[in-house]
Write a structure and sequence with these properties.
Length: about 160
């Protein structure tokens, strides 16, 4: 809304309100009964005189509504991002479980066996699994993590 329009409209309302209040109030100085119409004029005058304040309040409220709507949109986007991240982390958690680790390492050594003429000794497989477990290392297949995902998104 144009600020100049608000100013001039509020000024007109203030002057009209003062005029409406003056007419019944002048009757009190002359000791003449005002009546219901005079009471209505006083109420209308008071409302019109405070219109500029109501306009200011309406402008502020509309600004707050806009910010509230923006905050709602930001909240929905954050909830969506959180749900996506939770889904990704759930897949990673499943891939990091002991069963999945055993399957992943078995798949790695099976591929090694298939590519080599001499199979990998079972002692070497067990020792490698134990070393990885003792070091706290987990092997997660890249297929678990979606393309375009960055761990920086979790920060």
């Amino acid at each position: 809304m144009n600020e100049h329009f608000v100013f001039w409209a509020s000024l007109v309302c203030l002057l009209a309100g003062a005029a409406f209040c003056f007419l019944p109030a002048a009757r009190y100085f002359q000791k003449v009964a005002v009546g219901a119409f005079g009471g209505v004029l006083i109420v209308v005058g008071a409302v019109l005189m405070t219109t500029f304040k109501w306009t200011e309040v309406a402008i502020k409220v509309s600004g707050l509504e806009l910010r509230l709507a923006e905050a709602e949109i930001a909240k929905q986007k954050a909830e969506l991002a959180l749900a996506q991240t939770d889904g990704i982390l759930a897949k990673v958690k499943i891939a990091a479980s002991e069963e999945a680790q055993a399957q992943t390492l078995d798949a790695i050594f099976a591929k090694l066996d298939a590519n080599e003429t001499k199979p990998v000794p079972p002692e070497y497989v067990d020792k490698t699994k134990r070393i990885l477990q003792d070091a706290g290392l987990t092997i997660i297949p890249t297929s678990t993590i979606p393309t375009g995902f960055s761990w920086d998104q979790l920060k």
